[in-house]
What does this fold into?
Amino acid sequence: MPKCLSYCFSLFLLFSLLLAPPSSAAEPPKPIGPRIKIEPPSIDFGTIDTNESVTKTVRVTNTGDQTLETEEVCCGMVINQWRRKIAPGESVDFPILLDPNRLSPGPYQGSRTIRSNDAGQLHSRIEVLAFNRPLVYIQPPVIQFGTVPAGKEGTAIMTIASRDKDVEVRSIETGHSLITVRPLDANMVVAHNPNFPGHQQWEFTLSKNAPTGSLPSTAKLVLLARHPDHPNDPPQKIELTASIIAHVQGRVAAEPRFIRVAQTFHGEPFTERILVSSVSGPFKITSCKIVESTLPGVSARTEPLEDGELKRHYLILEGKGGDTPGMFRGYVEVSTDIPNESPLRIQFNGFVRAKPATSPIVP
It folds into this structure.
């Protein structure tokens, strides 16, 4: 009897295996998406003792299984040379450029930010190190007059420092007839850094006849300086450029001075407003128009503030986020009925973002 039971049990197992449904095939691996890998993660330029820009490279590799999209972000703006699509397994070398003329002398520690579609690492940082010891530098790197009342002169001081005590300034051109420049008395200038014994100061003057509004310009410098390590070599010709920023304040001003679109998404409308006011009494706005815009369809209009005095008006900027993500900017020009008042030019900027993905509602 036990043998019979054992035989029946064996037959039962055999039929169970034959009648069982076939096992499902192994599921294919799930895609991991794009993955960014940056080598090296930091760049050390060492000592930079020249005024020439220097470049090193980093290698960006896509270790994922979908296309990697990258772009460099600097101060909220996208730099096009880093906008690339990298196939799975592909590597691309990207330049890291360092301009010593934009750095203060001494140690420098900064970074470059790379934005990508790697879901686990949307922003990657590359550390950048250097010790800047240029032959010549200017301070401050941006010549700022600040806000100058209309009808008044404005002044700003620029310092030129060099490792060559006999540095020669061949020319300084401002590119604007309303901005003049002259050297200050050498006997009044003291070199504070012994490593830069060549020390000069130049005074920039903004004419009292400058029109109201922003007056951007540049100063182009041509200098001759000998490298202290090679005193017998002929002097090097060095060309530097400094930005000049001035704002002539008229009787009408914007509060704040520019329009910032905090955030907008593809296809969604946005509205921002600021105040345009007068310090001299009631006024009317005769014209309000967009004179430049990288985002199509932006419009501007004004509304008087209901205070009964017509000293303040709302400036309203309206538009819709475009199809392409990225920075946009432009200018609004506002004219008034105030005699001899130049049109007020107001900058606007913002950033269009892709709409965030929404999760499905699970009942």
